[in-house]
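Q: My collaborator sent me two sequences in one message, no labels, and asked for predicted structures for both. Can we handle them in order? The first one she listed is below.
A: Yes, handling them in the order given. First sequence, followed by its structure tokens:
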Amino acid sequence: MTTRTTQLKLNTNATIPAIGFGTWQDPEAQEAAVTEALKAGYRHIDTARMQVPPHSYGTEPAVGKAIKKSGVPREQIFITTKLWNNSHHPDDVEAACNASLKDLGTDYLDLYLMHWPSAFERGDTMMPKGGDGKMKTADIDYIDTYKAMEKLQKSGKTKAIGISNFSRGEVQRLLQRTSIVPAAHQFELHPYLQQKDFVAFHKQHGIHVTAYSPFGNQNEIYDSNLGKLIEDPVLVEIGKQHNKNGAQVALAWGVNRGHSVIPKSKTPERIQDNLDSDFELSAEEMEKIASIEKKVRFNDPSGTFGHDYYSDLEGKK
């Protein structure tokens, strides 16, 4: 079994390592985890200004410390972070990016994503809620937010910009009204939510897809009556043919489709296992995985965030 280190090309001509390291939970554990990941050989780190949950400041400071300690040259690491919803006003975008750069200890990003297509009330509060407990949203068009992000790419503060958690209609509107095609779109994608048509739409427009939650309902925050995706008999059986486990097959499925994947882990053994998940699956094996599609979405904060996300996509409840 040959383990690969696939690099995928963005529409900027930059390359992104297919297997990245996700850091979206447990901020206190991330410095050690990212240190371990860089030591293992990861060169794609995905972080964010804000973590949901636990609805607190994100993992950027921990990621920055780990990168500094690692001794790995900055230019060898692909860093993605995200603009949070309370900084969508065009006048706030550059300051938010500057804060991320400071916490990460770098003077540029490889990829800066708009985390969600909806805005919260402006200010320092990450999750601004009213007396009724509902989110305080703001009437700020994501088009205007994105245009402010375009300026960051032109100034060199980020080498590429992109989006996350957009619906198809929202992406289409963005393409019609802005000048820089997103380099990447990060959204939930795994063998139980394969979104074949939506993925093809991105390919048609030259937008790279990064899959978050590539293990589906493995995360304890997802309330699901389904069995664990990584224990699905089809994935487990395919794994046996490659001396791999179901989780590794789930990641390989994403890479074989041309996506980057960003699994997270705090355990050195699993961190290594995930990195060793870039291997070739046959057309027959890919067809078998296609057959376990359930069109089930595990992450949808529409009720909490005050915006109807994924309205035209599969898996919307």
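Q: And the one she listed second?
A: Here it is, processed independently of the first:
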Amino acid sequence: MNGLTSRIRIPDSEATSSEDIFDTGLSVLFPDSIRNLHGDPGSDIIYTSPEYGDLKLALADPESREEGLLFAHYLWNSSLLLAEFISHGCAMGGRSDDSDFEVTGQTVLELGAGTGLAGIISALAGAKEVVISDYPSPSILEAIEDNVRNNVPESMRSSVTVKGHEWGSLTDDFSKANAGHFTRILCADCLWMDGEHQALVQSMLYFLSPCDDARIWVIAGFHTGRAKVAAFFDVAYSAGLAADKIWERDTEGHERDWGMERSGAAEEDVEQRKKWLVVAILRRVTLSR
């Protein structure tokens, strides 16, 4: 079974239909078939964290077609990988230093959070403050709030806030109060909407602390094509961000160099593309005086 996706299961009380049973066994029946998203709208799913045990996550039930098109009602492999990195404080491979994904004592903002898994893990791992944000939709935010209540101990809950935030909209009270406030910004599987790249980068730069060690952690899959992912980095670099490190990793832990372009049969095969994710550690460019 695939290392990353094997940590996901449907609660026993919900895995009653033949379809659920079939989906749960896909990775055994067809080891080359990779699920890059997990769960169903309005259902629960369990993620087994190597460090923190079983976390039960509620998935949003979109109230409109427009909300459904945000795809915030699934748990994505990018979130799983980011959660694992944060749990360990590093990327558990040859491309990362021991503290590259350390959150202890940091102020953390998760953008486009979906279930809020990465933000929840950040709180459990010792972050000083965590804000978990997504599009300001009641169904999405209520699901995240449920997940915080169910998975973050009450003694730690005061350090975690759930906020609605539309990328690039920076005139509301929350934005005004938190400009340059966060030393760690998390972004998992938010790059597939290429028309939103500019707004996403705008929010990243606005909220990122000016301190030298402030970082943005970006992980994204290639299921919608490499071109959309690469386009984000073009926008980010043009706006004043730079990559400390950037590489690719698959769901089994194999790694390779990042490529803005790739060719060949594997790149054209959707199943092969779904195995791979890009991992990037971004920082603000410091202009020389």
